[in-house]
Structure formats: structure tokens, C-alpha cells
Amino acid sequence: MASSSSSSKTGLKKMLTLKSSDGDEFELEESIVIQCQTIKHMVEDGFSLIPLQNVDTKTLTKIIEYMKKHAEKTESNKEEIKNFNKEFVKGSFDDQFELVSAANYLHINGLMDLLCQSIADRINNKSVRAVREIFNISNDYTPDEEEKVRDEHKWAHEGGEFDESLD
Amino acid sequence: MAVENRYSSAVSGGGGEIYHLPEGCIANVLSLTNPRDTCRLSVVATIFRSAAESDAVWDLFLPPDYRDIICRSSDGPDSIVFSSKKELYMYLCDHPFFIDGGTKSFSLEKRSGKKCYMLAARSLSIVWADTPRYWRWISLPESRFSEVAELLDVCWFDISSKINTSMLSPDTDYAAYFVFTTKSRTYGFDHQSAEGAVGISGNERKTQTVFLDPEAARRHMYQIVPMRLGLLNRMADMLRREANPLPSESEAHARYPQQRSDGWIEVELGQFFVKRGQDAELEMSLTEVKGGNWKSGLVVEGIEIRPKEG
Fold it and tell me: Which residues are in the F-box domain (chain B) (predicted)?
């Protein structure tokens, strides 16, 4: 924190390097990267080359795109950021889960909120079957257990059709 | 609600599949859906169930001021204590409790977690209610409140009440319902509609035609059916309308009584959208002062304010 304020005073932009799990390196201004709490802590601990062994190049590229745009955030470009966010969350569920996983690991709260809201909107009113397929997970209940969990909240399974689509 | 993992502790895998997501992330997503989706989707897999049980999720489904409301409980706040937020939520949905000295009951609507109130007859403004010749206060075992108002006889039927919109859930379509029952010797409402209205005090409020006679709904159906039949039926229908004049447009939009699961009858008085941050007096009323006939035999439980379904 102290180092970033002193470097801006002198007009020099402090640069950091992020290294993806695929070994690709990205050089970025510190002011952009410190949106990410995990990296901020590492910068405070004196790191300037930051290896991210849990984030592949494809995901990191997306995350950098997000951080760059959000570093430009001001009072006057709210609409632009809103549109950017809308475009940013378009894409497959798989890509989104990868991003959630990375945003959670990197502690980028704004991105976490954006992604979780987007996933929540997409699973709204979906059927159990559709959500299993979307999340690509196998049912790990025994038939008896599943019946029991279903019985606990009968009201939540009644009254109206649920969305079976996978988009 | 980021899940604790400082950079030193690497998360294994980190792939796109949901099983690699910490439970906290799933809880985060579920907390942004609604109580009904969350309960239904706990069937998806065990990881969903454990996420769907977490306090973090249900804390967000409870109204932000639920602690203040519990503190207003007539039985004291200690009467409502649960070990998990989900148990508390379910209790508040299924067990309306009295607040403000027993003049209101409070509960949550299960699917959405929105606030619902029933204003007891005693807390309503009922014209002539203090005159024993016109209204009488009685206790009924089927009432949640200690007293209900029985209409003995009035010409001027006029009931109203107010609630501050800040007590309601924001960004929500609400409707107010008059909750009552009829006695065998009910009269004066069979051919006479009343006017219901809901809106901000002081502003002009749109009124709607309200029928209080449960038989009116059946008659209404009967009047519509013969429209397509022959001339004789049409004439008979016209005669019936003449004998029982009602503006057909208001009749088409009229509200009819419905049976409730608690044994009482309800009829909608009007609807209202509560905006976020709105702090205004919402006024609800039910009047029949135009017919001038004597009316008798209703028993008033109160006025319920709850979110519109769907």
C-alpha cells in the first residue's frame, strides 16, 4: 500500500508480473492488479513475480480483461462498466465455473459477486435435472436419501413447471 | 463471501467443474436465488444440500430487520430462538407471531421470504365500532386474535387501516385482503357491492368493486354463461341485469371472496408496489356507504398484507 502511493507520487508506474499455470507471463501495473486481494497481500510481502498455479492462461486472460476495465471505473462511466459486465458473463457455464474458482482463489470480490449473480440468474427456477446437467455433476445421493431430502421441502417442488432448459 | 484460502494454501485442481468449487461459492450462488429454488436444488447433490443449509444463505433470505421485528414479539424475543437461520426462517413462515401488543401478526411468505402482516380488527378504524348497537366485539376460537368484530347492523359500512411502507419488503408487489367470515343471517351484501382501495395516504386512490357475499361469485359466473345463448336467454339476462343493476365494466374487474386454508374468507381490496427506500403511509379501505341499505352478519378478522403471487 505504502509503496504504491509513493510510486504514483514520483510518476513511476510500478509493474508486476503474473504467471499462469501454463507458464505464460503477463506484465501489469500494480494499481490494476491490487484489486485482487490475494495478489495485494503478496505485493505487501515483497513479491513482484507472482506465480498463479491454479489459474490457466485462458482464465487469467479473462481476469486481466476484467481488472483492466474495472481499474478505469469512475463516476461517469457507470453505464459502460455495466455493459462490459453484461458481456463479460456471457459464455458457457464451464468457463464461468473456472472464473468463479479463480476469482475465489484470487479474492476479487467484485468479480465473485458478478459471476455468482450471473449463475444464480441462470439457474433461477431450473429443475433439479437441468441443474445436474448444467453443473455436470452426478447425483451422489442414494435413492432413499434423495427421497428424504425431497420430502423435507415438498412445497419447493410443487406448484408450477420448472425450467428444463440447459442454457 | 469469499472462501478463506490465502495464496500460500493452493487449491487443488481449480478446474471448471463444480466439485472443485468450495462449498462457500455454491452457498454464495444459492443465496442469490430464492428460498424456493434453494430448497428444491438441495436435491441436486450432497454438496448443494450442505451449501443450502448454511446460515450465510438464510441470513440473506431473512428480512434485514428481522431482529427488530422479533424484538417486537408480544411473547418477548426469547420465545423465538433457533440454532440455525434456516430453522428460524421456516418457523417465521409457518408460525405467524403477534407484534405491537397483539394488534398485528407477522410472518414470512415461504417462497420469497417477503414480509406479511395481518392487522387485527381491533387495530382497524371501523366507523361505529364502539357503538354496541352496530358492532360487537367477540372472541372466536378460530381467530388468531383475542377479539374479532361482528357487524350487527349498519348502513354506513366503513373500514380502513394504515401501514408504513417501510415495514414491508422493498421492490415488491403487495396486495391487501379483507379477511372475514359470514354468519347464517348475513344480509345486505348479496346484491350490493362495496369499494376497496389501496394507496398512499393523501394521494388519489383507485377503487375497485368488491363483493363480500360468497354467493356473488357463483351468480357472477351464472350471468356470464348465457351471453352466447339465444334471444330468450339474452332477454332474460337483460331483465336480470335491470332488476339488479350493476355497471358491467366494474363487475368484470370486481373482486370476489375466496376461501382461505385457515377457514376464513378473503377478498382483495387492491394492490400496491412498494419501492425501495419508500417511507409513506399506505392506506387500505373497504366501504359501502352508497347503497344506504342495512347490512349485517359479517365477522371481521382483519386485513392481511402479503406479496402478490406469481
Answer: 19-58
Q: How far apart are CA B24 and CA B38, in angstroms?
A: 14
Residues 139-158 of A with CB under 8 A from B: 139-141, 146, 149-150, 152-153, 155-157
- Is pTM beyond 0.90? Reply is no
Give the three cell numbers for residue A113: 459477486
CB contact under 8 A, B25 and A116: yes
Residues of chain B contacting residue A142, judged by C-beta atoms under 8 Å apart: none
User: Is A27 strand, coil or helix?
Assistant: strand
B109 close to A (CB below 8 A) = no
Nearest-neighbour CA in chain B from A48: distance (Å): 14
**B49 vs A: CB within 8 A:** yes
DSSP state of B308: P
Q: Which three cell numbers stand for residue A63?
A: 481476469
Taken in order B233, B235, B238, B242, is the CA torsion positive or negative? negative
Taking all residues of chain A, what is their mean pLDDT, rounded to a whole number? Answer: 89
Cβ–Cβ of B10/A54 closer than 8 Å? yes
For the segment B77-118, what is each residue's pLDDT rounded down to a tens digit?
Answer: 888 889 999 999 999 999 999 999 899 999 999 999 999 999
Please state the φ and ψ torsions of residue B200, each to the nearest 5 degrees: -70, 135
- ipTM for the complex shown: 0.86
- Long-range contact set of residues A47-50: C-beta below 8 Å, sequence gap at least 24: A48/A15, A48/A16, A48/A17, A49/A16, A49/A17, A49/A19, A49/A25, A50/A16, A50/A17, A50/A18, A50/A19
Q: Does A54 touch chain B (CB under 8 A)?
A: yes
For Cα atoms A94, A95, A99, give the angle at the middle one, nearest 5 degrees.
115
| pLDDT tens readout for residues A70-127 | 999 898 999 999 999 999 999 888 888 889 989 999 999 999 999 999 999 999 999 9
